[in-house]
Every structure is written in C-alpha cells, then in structure tokens.
Amino acid sequence: HPQLAARLHCDRLTMAALAAALATAVSAYNNGMGERPPMGWQTWCSVGECGEDHCFDGQIRAMADTLVLSGMKDLGYDWVVLDDCWHPTRDNATAELVPYPRFFPDGMKPVIDYVHSLGLKFGLYTSVGDRTCHGGWSPGSFGHYERDARTFAAWGVDYVKIDYCGSHDSVEGHRNMSRALNATGRPMSYMLCRGPYQQQDHWGYAPGIAQGWRATGDHHDNFASVRQQVEAVRGKASWSGPFGWAYLDMMMTGGQGCKDQCVGPESDQGHCNWTKPEHCPGMSEEEYRTEASLYVVVSSPLMVGTDIRLMTPIMKELLLNKEAIAINQDYKAVPGDAMPSCHGSSQEAWVRRLSNGDSAVALTNWGNHTASLAVCLDAIGWTHGETAGARNVWARQSLGTFSRRFEAKVRAHDTLLLLLSRTGAAGSPENKVAVAM
Question: Which among 78, 148, 163, 330 is annotated as catalytic?
Fold first, then answer.
C-alpha cells in the first residue's frame, strides 16, 4: 500500500489516511503468541561490550530474579532471552544441541525450569544457516530444523530468535524452521533477526511465518545507532500489529557492559565476570530518553540488552514508567510513525493514536543545541476539537490544556514524550503552553 506511506509524510494527515492505516494493519500468523509486543531482558550487551555476548547459568538465574524483585515482571517484562551466547555444540551420537558445558554445566533445561518457576518465559537463539553469527564457531540449525525444534520444545523454550548467518541461509530455511516449531505442538514465539524480508514490501514473507521480525541491523550504544533503528520503520506503521511485530534491536538503556569484564578471546575460550554488574554508557541520559521514547511510540518490543541488576536513575526513569509502557503495549492501536509536526514546518513528530482516542507524541531534537519544538493538533490529525490536555510522560507531570499548538524547549539529543488527551475545556486560540526540558 504505497499510498499509505505517502500520506504519512504529507503535510496533512487526513481521517481517510487514518482509516486506511487501520484497514491495512498487518494480519499476522497467529499461534497464540505475541498479541502484544514482548518485553523483557536479553543478553547481548549486559556483560562486556556489545558483541562479547557470553552468558552463564548463574547470570541467567540472577537476571530472572531481578526481573521479579525489581518489579519489572509486574510491569510486563516477563521474557528472559539468550542471544548468541550459549555456544552449543552437537552431540556426536544424536546431533542434538548441547550448551557449552563451562557456561551451563547442568545443561539448559534446569535453567529454563528455574525461569519458568518465577512466572517468566524463556527464549534462545539459533541461526537459519549452518553457523551462528558470533564468530561462526557455534552450529546453526541448517539440516537440523526438526531436530532443533524438538529439542527446544523438550527444554520448554517459549521464544526462538533465528539469525541469518552461515552457509545455506535462505528464506526456505526460515519457513522450514517455522513449520518445525509448529509441528512440536508447543507454542513458541518465532522471531526473525534478519533476512530478505527487511527489503520487501510489508515485510515480505515474515508476517506469514513469525510473530516478530527485526526491522534493521544490530543496535549499538551510540546515538547514530538510535536514529538508524527508528528510521527502519519510518512509513511502515501499518505493517505491524498483534501477533506480528516489527521490532527494533535491543535497547541500550543505561549503557552496555564494560570491556574489563571479559578477558581472553571472544570465542567460548574467553572468560567474563558476570557477578559484578557494570555499565559503560555510550550515550547521555538525553540520548537514552530519545531511544526509549521512540521505541515506545513505534510499539517496538521492549527488550533490554543491558544489566538490569544495576538500575541507574535513567534506567529507572525509562524502564519503570507505567505510562510509557501502556503506550507501547496498546496492541489495538496502529504503531506510531513520523509526520510533520505543524503545517509548513520542517520539524516532525513521531505520533501514535491510541485506542482510547489519546495520542502519544515524541518531539525529538536531533540537533546539537537546545531548540524549540512544536506540535499542532490539526497537523497530526487530532479529531477532538482545537484543544487538548498535555502530559509529560517521563516527568509524570500534567502540563495543562493548550489550544491548537504546543511548544517546548528540548535539549540537544533529547525527546519530549507527550500524551495528548481529550478535554472539555474550550481554550483560547491564542493560548499556548510552553515548557522546557
């Protein structure tokens, strides 16, 4: 539906465009998993720098404990997902996957059972080709799709992330693994990490076989990477929805782990000290706020890739905010997209119309200096008259009622995340709320 993408970028988003977005929202393959965007913790940048990616029995149990004890589970963060970190080999006799014994001395099932005992769900990683992406020293699932699917089901896996590395990576491999997982009879979220679908209209074959698919490449702990992530879903809001979510890569909130946590080679011969949580941030607090704001508005799954055992103030602000989570988890609403924030303006906002009639608006200052940013109700398709109530989501602060236009000063690389709600008050056309952040 190229006409929809064009409407989302024109100067005026009409009600006809909104109706079209709702009518064309993705109808994804539904195996009962993924009605809402998943939320949880993932290993990739939590110990050592991003890409070091080793994980350990005790670490996984500790992270699961933290999800519960910190209150994150009660907020919806109920996934524990292993990335390309468990470094399996294949049993010489059965060809079944065996986790690296130094990392998981008792195997994988006891760890999964522990995660389940806390009321959490468990996911892990494989590749559609014959090798995984982390150095190519772990086997992928090519030639073993049915066997690996049966292994995952027997272990109690709830979520399989499949990468696109090694020889024999193919679309047919993606399809074969989907069929193999379904054949086990155990519902598992099937999450594509990358593949040809990323360059295809409406994400190509992905919605027909998976509950989620990554929209772009790896996310790293820098501000340029944040922009690259969100640009991958620009103009594609209606291509995602219940049981089929385009997702941005793991969130870097609070900062990746530190280089000195790991010694030796990046292979499974290396050693990482997971017992002491650390952060070595690559971004400022303002930049992490922008990352979180945009992930929330585009309804990306919220998978935290950093160490949640050491919750810094910015992590608490962004990850524990019930209002932001409610915006992200409103699965009945079309995910947000970019549009001009006011008619005739070069500024834009990322806007999501929520199922209750409210709108979430992210005003991002991509520049290097504080700037005044504005949003105009008519430009974003507000349908509740010429007034709205405004609330600063991150500050959890009401900003009062405004008429037609809202303006605020926003610091460099920061984002003001607004929740606009209907109001019965008839504001003066000249009235303008101005705030600074």
Answer: 163
